[in-house]
Design brief:
- The structure is a single chain.
- The chain has one domain: Cytochrome Bc1 Complex, Chain D, domain 2.
- It contains 6 helices and no strands.
- The chain has helices spanning 2-26, 39-47, 49-52, 68-71, 75-84, 98-110.
C-alpha cells in the first residue's frame, strides 16, 4: 500500500515538472505573441513575455493586458515599478535604458492585449 502511494506521488511530481517546463517554453518571446514591431513590443517580447505571456495574459507573472492602467493610473508610477521591481519582479533599471523602459511601459498601456 505504501509503495502505491509513493508511486502515485512520483507520477504527480513528474507531471508537474513537465507542465512547468511546457509553460516556460510556451511563453518564450517570439512564440506567436502579438508584440508589434514597435520598439516597446520588441522589448516586451525580449524581456517580459517569458513571465507575463506573449500577449500579457499572465503566466508565471501576473496578467498585464487590460490591468496596467487601472493599477498604475500615472505612467511614471509604472516606470518606477519597472525600474526598481518588487517581489519576484526584477528591476530593469540596470538592464534597459530609460528610453527602453518608457517604450515598454507605453506598449503595456496602449497596445498590449489588442
Amino acid at each position: 500500500m505504501f509503495r502505491r502511494v509513493v508511486n502515485a506521488i512520483e507520477v504527480l511530481a513528474v507531471v508537474a515538472v513537465a507542465v512547468f517546463i511546457i509553460m516556460l517554453f510556451a511563453n518564450e518571446p517570439g512564440s506567436g505573441g502579438a508584440a508589434a514591431s514597435s520598439p516597446g513590443g520588441m522589448i516586451f517580447s525580449a524581456n517580459c513575455a517569458s513571465c507575463h505571456g506573449a500577449n500579457g495574459e499572465g503566466a508565471i507573472g501576473p496578467k498585464l493586458a487590460g490591468v496596467v492602467v487601472p493599477a498604475f493610473p500615472n505612467p511614471s508610477d509604472e516606470i518606477t515599478f519597472v525600474d526598481h521591481g518588487r517581489g519576484i519582479m526584477p528591476a530593469f533599471a540596470t538592464t534597459l535604458s530609460a528610453a527602453q523602459i518608457r517604450d515598454v511601459v507605453d506598449y503595456t498601456r496602449t497596445e498590449l492585449g489588442k
